[in-house]
Amino acid sequence: MKIMLINSVEKEETRIAILDNDKLCHLNIENNINKKNKHNIYKGKIVKFEKSLDAFFINYGVKKNGFLPIKEIYNFDLYYNIYNYINYKDKNNFFQLNLDILVQVIKEETKNKGAFLTTYISLPGIYSVLMPNSINKEGISKKITGDCRNRIKNFISFIKVPNNMGFIIRTEGLKVSIESLQKEIDIKIKLWNKIKKNYKSIKSPGLVYKENDIVIKTFKDCLHKDTDEIIIDNPKILKKIYRYFFYISNISFLKNIKIYNKNIPLFSFYKIESKINNLFKRKIMLRSGGYITIDSTEALTAIDINSFRSKKYNSIEDTAFNTNMEAIEEIFYQIKIRNLGGLIVIDLIDMEFLNNKKILKNRLKKLIKMDKAKIEIGDISKFGLLEMSRQRLSSVLQIYNYYLCNKCNGDGLLVDKESFLLSIFRLVEEEIYKDNVYEVNIIVPEKTNICFKNNKINYINNIKKIEKNKKIIIFFSKKIKYPNFFIFGLCKNKKKKNILKKIIKKYNTNNTMIIY
After folding, report:
1. Region of 106 on the Ramachandran plot (φ > 0 left; ψ -120 to 50 alpha; else beta)
2. Which of 13, 129, 415, 419 can pair with 168 through a Cys bridge, CB separation 3.0 to 4.6 Å?
3. Which residues, listed in sequence order, are joined to residue 16 by a DSSP beta bridge?
4. Rounded average pLDDT over 345-362
5. Directed axis angle between helix 417-432 and helix 457-466, to 10°?
6. H/E element holding 131?
């Protein structure tokens, strides 16, 4: 039994979970602070061209400028005008023109990078995707294969779209008639006409079209005919849901919608709060006694498999094979539900038999067919590493719920106090022995006050014997968390003095200091 649960009682956050026979198979979270803008369409301004990247930076109304590669510009006249202006005329005058451009977000911005933009607009529906800027392009989802693909090819020519537009049939389009497909495409054509009008009427930078909220987005991507129930704990969003199903002329799902009105919270009743909490854990235990660990960076995820207490098998090879097989199932589940993308490296337990490696890889290929994302798998190396790349369909789930630790800055380790103090004074020595430096300022956590006074006075005195005319000033701040610190060597440079003053104000040192 497949159930979709929509939890929107709290104003701050909306959560949608899909259970398939009591197993959590999809989770989507959106809160007021980190609202997603993927598929939103904006009227932007070209503000910069980076020749080394062959890309433009677009101001589209948010803090970070978006990234638009040249290959993502569909309008060839605009492309050549821009190219000629940049190569043969004054670049500064070009950017003063403030050229407007219609762009769509295809990858959301991260902490370090702006959003990835395109001018090839796509308007996704449940059964199809309309592409207004793709001339006469008719496509079929790569997930549709064999006889089904041939069947769609036979009737795709009966779908009518304007000459300057294209479309793609999604996997759900297999289950509906040509009339239903044509209805959805006609709705998207009307939407495109509205978008063009909005583009002309608003000032840039600004939002032209906002993609539907998390509920409607999830309906488009995850609501299939095998969904038995849609359970909602907030009656206020019912109108929006009804309006959507009437808009797409599909009222068959309305009978499956139910309002949840029990005293126990919706997710607690279905016992999935603990399952959600486990999604953010680094270490996941397996039933056999083994475990996997997941460590993610910006573009790479490393997954390690460990047999640990897995002792029920007869040989080392059996233990390795069976633990790896169990781990692969769990890894695929975790990758999919956490929305992990980029390069993924799995460190398997070493297996000697080639046949076992083939069985494991074939199992992984079968699992991949159930994923909407594009995935490529490499061979298992002689070191037992399996590399794969996965398309990032949306932002990693963890980004919206966690922030970087202000103590370790994401390293996961803290230095002991003795080493912390030694590293500071070695850096102080390096600064103070510079010829142009007359004063060294140190800003450290307030908790280290006693340690500085008791343990390191001799260390400072030894430095002062050599550099008698130079000052060492230690500031103690409540706002700096251990083991973070700042060291500034002051010289005649006024900029450094101003930076130091700003830092002292920011971290509110309360005039707590020691001067040597």
Report:
1. alpha
2. 129
3. 6, 28
4. 92
5. 10
6. strand 128-131
